[in-house]
Structure formats: C-alpha cells, structure tokens
Amino acid sequence: MDIKPKKRVFIGLLVFTCLILFFLIFLLWYVPMVGLKNIHSSLPFLFTIILGVLVFFMLSGGLLLVFTIFMRKDILFSQKLRGIVAKVLFPFMILMGRLVGVSKEKVQQSFVELNNHLVRSNHHRTRPNKLLILLPHCIQEFDCQIKITGNIKNCKGCGKCEIKDLIELSDHYQVNIAVATGGTLARRIIVENRPEAIVAVACELDLTSGIQDSYPIPVIGILNDRPNGPCINTKVDIEKVRKGILDFLEPSRPI
Questions:
Q1: Eight-state DSSP code of residue 82
Q2: What strands, in cross-sheet order, belong to the sheet with 176-180?
Q3: What sign does the CA torsion over 196, 199, 201, 202 have?
C-alpha cells in the first residue's frame, strides 16, 4: 500500500476552520455591541481591540504556517508552530474533516506529513546516541516466537520480517532502536532513553498520538505498509527510515 499524504488536505481544512472562526468572531463582536454600550461607552472599543488581537494572531499564525510549508525552510517559530498544530489545530481539523467529508485517516496522514515538514524545516540535528528509532510490534513476523519488545537485539536475523534490516540500519548509524506494543510502552521507552529526536514507524492513529505526546521532542513519522491488514505483518520502506535518520544526523544544508 503506497500512502502519499497530502499537506494540502490539512491546509484546506485550516482555511475552512479559519473562515468559520472568523464568522463566529464577527457574531461575537456584532451581537453584544448594543448591550456593552449600555453598560459603559468604552466597552465596545475594548471588546473590539481584544477580538482584533485574536484575529491578528490567527491570521499571522496561519500565514506563517503556510509560508513555512511552501518556502520549505524555517521562516520563524517552526517549533512553536509544531506545538500549535499538534495540540490545538489537529483536533479541530478532525472535526472539520467530518463536516466536509474528509476521512479521519486522511487528516491523520496529512498531519504526519505536515509535522515532518515542520521538523525538517527546523533543521534539528542531534548526536547518534540521542536519536531513537521507535517501531511497532506488528512489524515483527506474527508467528515468530522470539520476544523483542524488551530487547530488539534478541532478533535472530532470519529475514522473514524487516526487523533484521532495521537493526542493521541502527547499528550502521549507531542510533538507538526499540519496539513498542502500544502507546504506554512507547512513552516509557522515550522516558528511559531520553532522546533528543525520534524516527517513528506506525499507523496513522499511533503516529498522530505519538507526535502529540512527544512534543516538544521532534519526531519524523513514517507510515507503515499494511499488506495483510492492520496490526499484523506490517512493513516499512527501509530507505524512508534511513532518510529520517539522516534528517537528524546530517549537517544542515541550505534548501
């Protein structure tokens, strides 16, 4: 399954959300004006200033996000933008997607793509021992009897799944690698390893929740392939993982 998330889905939903919010702000400004004037003559002016500041920050934040995406470099505050996107905008985008008929999965894919773009725009670099590759347990061969969630190096390297290749990749770049069976274990692994950056492989749901939970740690998310359906014998493009590693390890280069 070749998944190609589109940032424009998220941007389109963002524009739609802003239009709705502007309309609500207008109603919030227009409706109480008469009542505020009766209370005190200066209240309408103060109320207008407050709402004007709110609109300014909405517009400037939205434009900054769009410019960062299209200019393909860190214009300003890309790390703060990641936080706003992860903690504030994403839940709104899911709701807006439902209203206009965009599936939750597509919004999640778009969110991961947008997050990756913002992380790369920030040119965050770290040492190999501070980089963590985090994998889902479903990437291991379903019938394999070897337990690797506690220690991935228990893998015998039979080659039936991609764990062997991923371990070789981590050894080559001397970065940490671990397997999580779910969000709780993933959070514990992050706490124990204390990484400065993460390359995570998972499905849409786990990636989006993981990116949100891990902030402000930068995460490059890579969607797994599911030829046999979800949560069983999933796969990942090894070259995408390699690229994610190099995004954090290679010296920053001008785009």
A1: H
A2: 176-180, 131-136, 197-202, 219-223
A3: positive
Sign of CA pseudo-dihedral 245, 106, 18, 208: negative
The answer for residues whose C-beta is within 8 angstroms of residue 195's C-beta and 6 or more apart is 126, 130, 131, 132, 176, 217
Residues spanned by the domain of 85: 7-121
Which residues make Cβ contacts (< 8 Å) with residue 72, sequence separation at least 6?
Answer: 117, 121, 255
pLDDT in tens, 188-203: 999 999 999 999 999 9
Instruction: Give the single-character DSSP code of 202.
Output: E
101: in domain: yes
Beta pairing class for 219-223 and 131-136? unpaired
Among 244, 225, 232, which Cα is nearest to 134's? 244
| Boundary of a domain, candidates 121, 146, 166 | 121
Determine, yes or no, domain membership for 2. Answer: no
43 pLDDT exceeds 60? yes
